[in-house]
Structure formats: C-alpha cells, structure tokens
C-alpha cells in the first residue's frame, strides 16, 4: 500500500515525501483511513511502529478546514510526559509545514504567560500533559467545548503515572460529539475500561501483541555484581565499540551518579530525569539528538517514548521495576525497521524484576558472559545460548577483583581537563583521584 491510497491531500503527501517516508507502516495503513472516516480508534501499538504519524496525519487533514476561536482549541492530545508532548509537536511541525494550523504546547516547566498568549490567539492543535492542562483550565484560561478530536496517547503510561482521574475529568469537559483516539502499548484491564467508557464503537487496531518486545531488537543479559556494573558497562561499550546509547537507571540519584562516573571516564555523557528543570531536560535531549552527547543516562519518566533517530543501543543499567517499562525502554532502539541492541545488567537485587522480564521476553534474551575479572553475586537464571563479549573468554571461573571506585559526584570534576575525550583514545597523563585503584580499562 502507498500513502497515496490512504485518502490524504496532496500537500500532506508532499510533506510525507519530504520527510522521506515511502510506505505507510501497518498501523498507519489501518488507522489513517478510519480516522479520516470519523471513527474512534483503540490502538494497541508499541512506540516505534509509526503510531504518532497515524494520528497526526489524519488530524492535519481533518483540521485543515475551519478556524479556532480564542481559548477554544479544536483538538486536544494528551501525553504523559513533556518530552513526548514535545515530540508529538515536532511531528506536527514536520508533517504540517504546508498547513496554516496553530499549535500550542501546554507542558509543565514552561512559561504560563507564553502558553496563555498562544491560547488567546486561537489554537487548532493543543498538545498537553494532564497536570498543566487542568491548571490552566482551573484558572479559566481555556475552554474545551470546541474540541472535535481528542487523542489519549500512551494510555498505559498515563495509568502508571496516576493520570487516569485527570483524564476522566478532562473527558467530562469535552463535547459529547467528538472523535476520540486512544493509544496504548499494552492493554491492562483499566485501559480497556477507559476505552469502553470514552470511545464510541471504536475500531480496534492491534499491531503487536501486548507486552512483547519488538523483533528488531537483539536482547542480551549479563549477570554482574552491583558494585561492578559501571566497569562492566564500560567494558561492553569498549569491546562492542558502541558509539552511542541510552542507559536507563531506576533512580534519579543513580542517573546523576552514573553520569558523573561516565563523564569522569572521558565519555560524552549527559543525565536526563524528572527532577531536572525543563530547560535542562530540553538541552540535554537536544545535545543527544545532535550527537554532542553520546551516552544519555536516563530515568524512565524522562525517557519514555523518546524518539532518537536510529539509536543503536539501550542499556538497562538496572532492571526496571515494571516489566512493561522494559518494553518501553528497549523500544527506543530498533525503530522503524532498524536493528537495535539492548543489554540488561543484572545484580542480585535485580533478580526478582528480571524474572518478570523473562515472562514477556524470555525466548528473545541471550546471556553474555563477562571475563573472569568480574564477579557475579547471584545464581544463573536460565540455560541460555551464550554470546561472549567480543575478545573475551566466556565461562571461566570467577574471581573477585579489587572493587573499582567511581569518581565521587561530590568531588570536583575528575580527571583533569580536557575531561571529554574520544572514547577510543587512550587517556593522556595521570588520572587523578583513583590512587592504586585505577581500572584496567584506563591503564
Ligand atoms: P512512533 O512509533 O510514532 O514513535 O514512530 C517511530 C519512528 O518511525 C519515528 O522515528 C518516525 O519518524 C518513523 N516513521 C513513522 N512513520 C514512518 C514511515 N511510514 N516510514 C518510515 N519511518 C516512519
């Protein structure tokens, strides 16, 4: 099937061609004509399937006729995080470059005044996180009675983040006669309930079975003691010659700690998590997209749904607490038909969570053994195919090596300037701050 078969106008087809897409993805094939025909949609699709364009394109088409009144947006898209909201806005900008539609982003961390000014001018497409939208509504700055199209994106994430009451409240403020599109990567019972309450005879589109991982991702796991994870991470990066990756940690303080450690070892690393100011989050994400940062250390909230063009690797430095977060984390790679790679580092504390991941991705996971200088602090889980890290000998008896010391986040930057060097370069001059514990990788 071609984009020309979907019922989109010439100006949109031109914008699609300029973006470089030649054929619609399966979800686009199914969803676009249904939305153009006015149907509600219940879409079960992972990120990476092209689901954003599946609603953005027909929305642009349908909204091209008509004009927005002040403070009365004509469409509303709810996103769980600011980053996702910004990403959807970028999609509108790309595909809508030949249209005259006004777009506003209502997300936390940005100026209320600017957002209000935009609303005053009349908005065709409003993309919002639930909290900020409710805030502006309660201040009387916005009316939702003109919304003709309503999109609830990443509904399962909204559920995890406790946004369902907000969504229910927002839905009650919308006109009864409207088109509603709901997308979710997974289909827990609560989301099913939400769909039956707010969707009118929806077309159900399922492009991948629930809670499975994309087949374009090579997934590997490694058992390693918690105290040796940072060294293991560096060793894998070096031996696999990994050019760039998102590295997920479960806790914000671990994100910051790992970022300092990686930077201390000369990697171009940056941190991204929900406690950072929005401007800092935008900056680090842009630097990663511009390849000024090669390793993005991130928490789940900050990185969900983020679309980095052709990202080759994802690391789970910690095993996520929810197996479904694993699906989302590794879904940052292997997107739009590219091959991706995902690693999980498993220490004893991660074992219980890892068992849950095995339930959804067991068959796809392959064990990698580190060399004998690493210790493992727990028993093996599954008899699996062994894939040695390149250049290392697998299956040797494990010894406990001296523990590495990561550069302390409290101390001044370490090693001395210039701190950032190409990862393949040998560090030059003495490395201050490690004493006799200089890791073998840096010798
Ligand atoms: P999404 O699932 O919306 O997060 O999209 C995942 C990625 O697929 C994004 O990088 C899109 O730019 C890309 N994409 C969307 N539609 C197509 C298409 N028809 N052909 C190729 N790539 C696409």
Automatic annotation (TrEMBL):
Domain Helicase ATP-binding: start-end pairs: 32-205
Biased composition (Pro residues): 409-418
Annotated GO MF terms: helicase activity
Keyword set, alphabetical order: ATP-binding, Helicase, Hydrolase, Nucleotide-binding
Presence of keyword Hydrolase: yes
Motif (Q motif): 1-29
SMART domains: DEXDc, HELICc
Region (Disordered): 379-443
Any Pfam family: Helicase_C
InterPro entries recorded: DEAD/DEAH_box_helicase_dom (IPR011545), DEAD/DEAH_RhlB (IPR044742), DEAD_box_RNA_helicase (IPR050079), Helicase_ATP-bd (IPR014001), Helicase_C-like (IPR001650), P-loop_NTPase (IPR027417), RNA-helicase_DEAD-box_CS (IPR000629), RNA_helicase_DEAD_Q_motif (IPR014014)
Keyword Chloroplast listed: no
UniProt-listed SUPFAM superfamilies: P-loop containing nucleoside triphosphate hydrolases (SSF52540)
Domain DEAD-box RNA helicase Q: 1-29
Domain Helicase C-terminal, chain residue ranges per copy: 232-376
Family, similarity comment: Belongs to the DEAD box helicase family.
Protein name (record): DEAD/DEAH box helicase
Origin species: Candidatus Bealeia paramacronuclearis
